[in-house]
Amino acid sequence: MPTTLGISAFYHDAAAALVRDGEIVAAAQEERFTRRKFDPSFPINSILYCLEEGGVIANQLDSVAFYDLPLLTYDRLLKSYLAVAPRGLESWLTSMPRWISQKLCIPEIIRESLDYEGPILFTPHHLAHAASAFYPSPFEDAAILTVDAVGEWATASFGVGEGHKVSVLREMHFPDSLGLLYSAFTYFCGFKVNSGEYKLMGLAPYGEPKYLDRIREHVATIRPDGSVALNLEYFGFLDRLEMTSPKFDELFGGHRRFPETRITRREMDLAASIQAFTEEAMLKMVNHVHRETQKKFLCLAGGVALNCVANGRILRETPFEDIWIQPAAGDAGGALGAALAVQYGHHGVKREPTSGNDRQKGSYLGPSFSEQEVEVYLERIRAPYRYLRENERALTIAKALADGHIVGFFSGRMEYGPRALGSRSILGDPRREEMQRVMNLKIKFRESFRPFAPAVLFERLDEYFELDRRTPYMLLVAPVCKSRCLPQESGISQDDDLLPVVNQKRSDIPAVTHVDYSARIQTVHRETNPLFYEVIQRFEELTGCAVIVNTSFNVRGEPIVCTPEDAYRCFARTDIEYLYLEGYWLDKKAQPQVKDAEKSKGEFELD
After folding, report:
1. CATH topology agreement for domains 1-135+329-357 and 137-325
2. CA distance 110 to 106
C-alpha cells in the first residue's frame, strides 16, 4: 500500500497531508500549530503530526509530493518583471531573496528537514487543486473546475475526473485572473488579501451593485466562456507592492479604505458590485464546462470555490445535477491534492466506488486529544472542572445553549480547511434576537456585518432552508424558508451605520439569517460527528429548534484552536461562558479570576 506525504508551502496557508492507498489518513494546516494565521512556512509541525497519525517515519514513505512547479512559477515572475521593467524593481528585489533561499531549493529543504531519501514529485498547482476536488468527491465521473489567484501561469482550469484519472483540458492564464480581481477589491475595501475575501462576500448584501457597469467598462470583461480579461492599467500587482493602481482610485472615488476604519456606503456597494461580477463569471464558466464535458456532476476547488454565495447559485442555476467542493479549497488543500494526484497518477492506486458519501471523512483530519491528556493539562493549570459521563455530555451542552449561554466546543479531530465544523467551534442559540449582538459584545466581534452560520440536523434541513442536499462543509449559501422569515422594518439604510440593519430580527432563527434572508449552511450527520449531532438533537428536544449557531473557536488574529491549551486560553481571555473540552465541563464563573488587563479586548474573530 503506497504512502504519500503531500506538502504545500511558501505562499500562504502551508499544510501537509498523508494519503495511504488512496485513503486520506491525516491533513492539517501549519497555522494551527504555530498560531501564526495563514503561516506560509515549511509545514514541519503538520508533517510530523501526519507521520505520527499514520504510524510512519519519513523514510518509510513511498513518495513526497509538492503542490506546485517552482521553476514554472519563477518563469512567470521573471517574464512578468521583464514585461514592465524597469518598473517593478522594488517588487522584484523584495521577492527574489525568498525565491533563492526557499522556493528554488524545495527538494533540499524536504530532504534536510525530514531526513528523507526517497522520490520527491512536483504536481502542477491546478492539477493539485483538481485532484483535491475530484478524488475525495462522491462521484465516479465528473467535470472539475478550479479557480484561484494564480498557480504557476494558470489562474483557472477545467477538466474531467473519471475513475482514478484526472485530466486538465484547458486553462486561463496570468495576468487574467478572477481571483486576483476579487482580491484587488478586497484590498481596496480595506481587508487583507488572501484572508479577507470572505469578509467582502459577507459585506456584499448590505450594498447595491452600483459599480458593476463601471467594472465591466473599465476594469475587467467577461467572455462568453466565463474567462476574464483584466485591464492592467487599474492594477498594481505587476509593477508595485500594491494590488491596485492610482487609476483604480480615480475610478472608484478616492484612495482605498484604511484597514480598521469605518466602513462606508462606497465599500458596501463595491462589495456588492464585485460579488455580482464574480457570480456572473462563475456561472458562465460552469455553463461552459458543462457544454464542453457533458458531465452530470461538478467538482470545485481553488480559493474562489470558497465563495459560497456563488456556489449556491451554481447549484441552483446551472445544468449540473450536483456539485462537490473541496473543504480546504485554497492553498492548504493543495497538499492533499498533490498527494492524491501522485497516489493515483504515479503509484497507480485504483479508486474504489463509494456508497454515495464522499471520502473526506467530514474533513475531521487533524489532531485529537484523549480525555487523559485533557485531564493532565487541567490538573496542571489547576482549572476547576466537572467530568461528564458519556450520557451526560450532549444534554449538558444543549441545556446551556437553550439557556442562552455561549459554549466553546472542543471534541475529536480538528478540522482541515478554514471552517469550524463542530470540532473546534463556538456554539449559541440561533432563536434569540439578541444573540448576534451578545456574541459580538462577549467576544469583541468588530465587524458586525458578518453573518453567523447555522448547523442543522440533515434530516431537518428542508424545514429551515431552501436546500435539498447535504452541505457538511459550510460551502453553500441558500435562502431561509419563507415561512420562517419576517419583514424588515426598513430597507438597507443609505448611510454608513450597519448596526440598525444587523440587529433587525429577520426570521425565527435571527442569529443565522443574513440581511438578504440567506444563510451559509452546515448540515450535520451522525456518521461523521456523532456528539455534535447529538448536541443539536438534544437542543431540538429542549427547544423545538434543530439549528444552532456554529462559528470558529479562535481569537482574532489567530487561527482556530488546535490543542486543549489553545482552547482554554481562548476561553479564559474572552467572555465565553462554558467550555466543553473532550469530556470535561468548565464554567467560567468557577475559573481563577482573569485580570481585565489580560483579556484580549477586540481580538475575537468569528470566521
Report:
1. yes
2. 6
